[in-house]
Automatic annotation (TrEMBL), chain A:
This is BING4 C-terminal domain-containing protein. The keyword 4Fe-4S does not apply. The lineage of its organism: Eukaryota, Viridiplantae, Streptophyta, Embryophyta, Tracheophyta. Residues 434-486 are annotated as: Disordered. InterPro entries: BING4_C_dom (IPR012952), WD40/YVTN_repeat-like_dom_sf (IPR015943), WD40_repeat_dom_sf (IPR036322), WD40_rpt (IPR001680), WDR46/Utp7 (IPR040315).
TrEMBL record, chain B:
Residues 7-36, 870-883 have a biased composition (Basic residues). Its main location: nucleus. The lineage of its organism: Eukaryota, Viridiplantae, Streptophyta, Embryophyta, Tracheophyta. It is found in: Nucleus, Nucleolus. It comes from Salix udensis. Keywords: Nucleus, Phosphoprotein. InterPro entries: SSU_processome_Utp14 (IPR006709). This is U3 small nucleolar RNA-associated protein 14. Residues 67-88, 116-127, 145-154, 462-476, 669-682 have a biased composition (Acidic residues). Residues 89-99, 106-115, 858-869 have a biased composition (Basic and acidic residues). Residues 1-196, 448-482, 643-684, 858-890 are annotated as: Disordered. GO terms for biological process: rRNA processing. GO terms for cellular component: small-subunit processome. It holds the Pfam family Utp14.
Amino acid sequence: MGAKQENGDPEDILPPLEQELSHDLDMKVKKYLRGEGADLEVLKDKKLKGQLYTRENLYGTSAKTAAKTEKWLLPSAGGYLEAEGIEKTWRIKQDTIGREVDISSAKNQYDIVLPDFGPYTLDFTSSGRYMAAAGRKGHLAVVDMKNMSLIKEIQVRETVRDVVFLHNEMFFAVAQKKYPYIYNRDGVELHCLKEHGAVTRLQFLKNHFLLASINKYGQLRYQDVTMGEMIGNFRTGLGRTDVMQANPFNGVVALGHSGGTVSMWKPTSAVPLVKMLCHPGPITAMAFHPDGHLMATSGKERKIKIWDVRKFEVLQTIRGHAKTLDFSQKGLLAAGTGSFVQIFGDFSGSRNYSRYMGHSIVKGYQIRKVAFRPYEDVLGIGHSMGWSSILIPGSGEPNFDTWLANPFETTKQRREKEIHSLLDKLPPETIMLDPSKIGTVKSGKKKEKPTKKEMEADLETAVEAAKGTAMKKKTKGRNKPSKIAVKKKEIVERAKKPFLDQQMVEEEKVAKKKRKIGEEIALPTALQRFARQKATA
Amino acid sequence: MQSHKMIEKKRKSRDGKKHDRPQKFARKSKFSKKRGKIEDDKRRTGPRLPQSLRIELDRINPNDQSGSEEDEEGINDDVYEYEEGVPEEESKKNRRFDSVENYEYELPKDFKDENVDSDDDDDDFDGGENKIAHHKGKKGHLDQLDDDVEDEDDERHLRMLQGITGMPSQAFQDRKKTKVVSEGYPESEYNPTRDVLDGDGRIAIEDLLESIQGKPGYRELRKITRQVEKKGKVLQAPLPKEDRDRLERSAAYEQSKKDITRWEPLVKRNREAPTIMFDKDTDSGFSTIGAIASEFEPRTEFEKKMSSLVNDDNVMAAHKEDGSRLLELNKISLEDYISSRNHIAKMRSLLFRHEVKMKRVKKIKSKTYHRLLKKDRLKGSVGIPMDAEEAKELAMKQEFKRAEERMTLRHKNQSKWAQRIVKRGIDTQDEGTRAAMAEQLHQHALLTRKMNSMKDSSSSDDSSDEEDSENSDGSDEDKAPKLLAKAREKTRRVLEEDDGVPDSGVLSLPFMKRALKKRKEAADEEGRLAIQEFESSLKELEDTDEAKITKTGTVIEPKNKIRSSSYSSDSEAELEAQEDIDIGLGRTDDMQNNINVNSVSLYVDADIPQDSVLKNSELVKDLGPKMTYEVSILQSNTWKKMSSSRNEVDTNGKRSQKVVEPATHNQDIEFEGVGEDSDADSEGQMLDGILSSEHKSSYKLPSQAELIREAFAGDDVQEEFNKDKEEIMNLENPEPEKPAQLPGWGQWTRVQKKKGLPSWVLEEHENAKRKREEALRKRKDAHLKHVIISEKLDKKAEKLLTGTLPYPFTSKEVFEQSIRMPIGPEFNPATAVRALNRPEVVKKQGLIIKPIRYEDVDSHERGGEERRKSGQKQKIKRSKGRVKAVVAKS
């Protein structure tokens, strides 16, 4: 209340510049308030009202401080290309940009030519400091991007389909020909995850410490990398796919299938949470916006679609083909196909993506993977002749939070952060479509099947209720205690009956199941000779 | 006139007497009623004289009973007299009979007693002196009587009191004097006194004052009274107590309410505050143990006693002195110290070494080692003297071992190994084997000797020695018959020597003799049987000696069979593999024999069905050389060769595997080729382990399969999806079963057929359908054609939601909005986090929370933050004096 008044009065007096500033601040405060507070006037409980009132005040101050910090204390603001006159941003070439930017940024424009080991796939750590590159023909490399030094390079002499960093740069998982493996930074093989089988794509959920994989047979597996436990193993039943992406907002893993459907999974449910038909043809690539609200898919029918994941509706359809897609931290969308990369941007904030930049590499190079480097305006492109790095102004988050991801992390900090993140590890069941639902009241939907205990409790209450029924007073001869007792017994029996019936039905079901199993085991004697004999030693 | 008056008076007085008498009686009776109970008790408990004695007493002491003619009460009052209990009607115990209290005849109110008047007249008439005397003389008699009775009563009562209290009777005398002459009937509203009836009976102050007229102070008193009268203020009678109390209470309540409402804003402030801070007066004083202990004051008896003892000077002095003396004693010489230190160091190092050793030993995982160690320990412990129980246990163990030895004869060359060695001749064995054999025999000897010594010490040592020698040099085959023969001899001897029956004593009695004889006969029978057994076993032994070789052959037979069967059951492939290996081995010339052996064994298993025992024995012979051959191989230096050949084989195997592998790989690749072509490409390039240096462009035209898949993939995607969605919908909200008629049910007339299904069935179906429709409509994906959202409940995720609203909340929205903001440090600026997460009460450790104190609070303040600020600004007045305990005045 007080805040409103404060804002209300002086605004009239303020000069226009400051007015604008305050408006800006208000917007930010709104962002940090995460929605409106409840209407407290409805409440009858005065105490609660008072408590909530003070709470809301605290939220208000917190949001205000956060907004102010964002406004004044963040060191740098993101830039972007601005076209003048008839200039178009997508006509601006990399060398033009390179001429304009400072040396340290210009360093990020390069091509690494590795012609021998096939198309490369890339993965960055969350801080953007390290990159893992994996050539299809078994070349694995971990590179420090800050000082452009190769940390380790190994040759596994096997097909490598995907590479992904685990929680920090110390470990990375590689999908190889038969199994995925986990290596450490020094190239030492730590684990061979045989259970996963021949994996085509890997994803790591860093808040849950889960390694998700989809194998050649369309089996999705979740493995906890802390304890090594297999959390989930689901048959998708939708065929082989190599399109898999985790939603960074909620940890839901989405798979793109050849039937044009995208299915979203969580590790505690054997059926997909959502299955949506996105394209009439097979899906070739998929990406999620960092805020988790947007999803981009591309199909073989040469269309890129941008979806609102909350409403499951198409926001925009862009013509074009993409073999690989990626969203940057600031929400730019890169689409790579053939030897051409296109970047779409939405600077109006209206979720309307338009062409922003483009870049074509040498003809004949086939792009396999595009990946924006976090906290830098850099796009990494893995292709058949190595990898290249180009500058995309306005793609990366300019300010990093050292608590979240620190590109200048020391060893000690890394260790501490590892421990912290382990302590903050989320259990796998917290993965759900809307994680903000956690802690709220269950929806009124009844459970599918009451448990045995509940059934017993129900039965008991019903019996109690039946016993408690008042008997009518009858005429003299018919009011005998014996008769009343009999009647009461009858009433109780009647109350019990539906429960007992249900129990019987369930028991029968179980018995049937057992019988079925038994039948399978005990074949008729005439057929027993055809039963498969167990090898006798 | 005079005489007439006199006569009249007399008559009247007689009348009065007549009146009087019943009155007296009544009073008496009442009196007796009052005391009845006490006297009853007395009478019942006290000793009583028998009737005859009492009569006697009466005779001697007639005065005792007031010898009046009309005195029955006197008798009644006698201690030793039985008094008839008061009739129930009169006791009024429960007022059953009559509620009338006054049995007297009552004169009407307006009755005028002439006599009184006349009396007065009389008084006036003749000076009243004689009259009084006369009256007295008339009345006095009665009075005297009455007094007598009462006096006696009182005396007794006095005595009783005296007896009880032990005080002199004078103490109670005056009580007696203040005797109240009660009215004839109780004064009450029904019987008002005459004064009240007359209306002028009130006693005024003047009346009272008159009596002190002329005394000092009288005047002042009168003055005061006059003044009071003049002012004429009438004092109201006080209110009833209940009303008074009520008023008092309400007044007190008002007061206390006022007192308490003063606290209201203070309490309200505390209640509304999100956090209550107790950060003032944080100085909690000394907190060391010493400080606390110094404040200790002995309170209880025990503590006081203890403290007096502890602080006693003598004790302190003694302690000091003792301490110094002890210190003196503590002095030790340097050499002693050094030597003791060295000793300790040595012990420590020994201990340490032992510890280290034990650690190492403990780490050793070998079971055999530990077993041996245990054995060693056991052996070692034999020599060490130990306590009785352990010794007993050990003895038991030894005994058990001996018994076992006797049972199994394990160390008596019974084992196969020993037998074989014996058969082959000990002389041919090497040193070690012979030593082992000797050791075994020695063991056996040891055990058996012990047995003998334990069993009968009387048995001659030389015999056992003989046995020993026999055992040690002879094999057990010769020994057994000897033993048996000996046993036979012994039993025979026992049988032969007839121990004479004793001639005297109990055993000489005839029936005892008979019994003994019987027993002896039985024993003889047994002995004979034993001899027979011995003989037969001896014979058998001889037989076995002959048949031994054949027996061993038969023993070995099953083993061979097993081997052969294992060979025969092997699959051909395995055989081939074996042969392969054999061939591999065959390259080294030394192993040629092995193949021979194999072939022999193969040959044997082909033959076995027809082979006789003899052949088997041959085979045994064959096996023997083979074994030796192997041993010789081991002994000679060919082992290396063999191992090298093994290695070769291994490498060969590996190679062969490698040879095989590519084939399987190829198969794999073929399979893969269906799925993904590019995979196959790369593998094809990598097959030989060395990556091809020349680069082929990895992009190439998609394969046929891929093209086909792509071409057909998008065909009926929409349709498929719709079908899928329907399926899932049906699964989650199953369609109700269609109502169907069971054949034969309700169809025995045509009527039913015409009517169709019963209405309730249809209705139910309709209901179910509608329900399903509703459920489908409620689904989140109801209006999204291209989306299926699973409605399945995730049980594991259920636990992250609350089942019910938490207590103070009444609406779901408010609750959910109240938890929308994260309050952790990751989501809030550092300055706000603390306020967001502050606990309800902030208190420093060790702070004592004092009871709330009054302070002035502005009741119109609101909000925690503002309040805190204002609290800092304005000086808080503390009015200790105003704080009062609220006490109700009632």
